[in-house]
Amino acid sequence: MVELFEILTYPNEFLKxxxxxxxxxxxxIQLIIDRMAATMYQAPGVGLAAVQVxxxxxxxxxxISPKDEKPDLQVLINPVIVESNGxxxxxxxxxxxxxxxxxxxxxxxxxxxxxxxxxxNSVQLEAKDLLAIVLQHEIDHLNGVLFIDRISSLKRNMxxxxxxxxxxxxxxxxx
Length: 175
Ligand code: CO
Prior knowledge:
alpha+beta, Peptide Deformylase, 5 strands, binds cobalt (II) ion
């Protein structure tokens, strides 16, 4: 069992960082991928970007297989959306870095993504439905964007207030 990462949560400023391209897919990168996957499954979550565990490298892992089926880990390195189209779809999203919030987010129905797999082979994905949403959500992370940046300012501000209160409460407990 590999060591789990700690997941950074809003309002950690690191989550706003833009991730750097992976130049060399070496042993260190393989270990990061394994630890990210273990962290995601443990959470549990559907997807995780490296920036969420404090590593500003362009790596995402995800698994959208149904819960009662075998795990199907997917890894993308340096993923880029090269095309997006279709109508706008709205899905109730959550995020391991945004605890205790689910909100509707508008996304593209279809996206095409170019990336590398963990062996450095180039992959092209034509995604729709849940996969398209997960890819847009995770690739947003690589650009320093959280799903709360895409919801109404009213909802976002309510969440910010809630988090601030929680932080104060925790500080009082420590004192
Ligand atoms: Co997320």
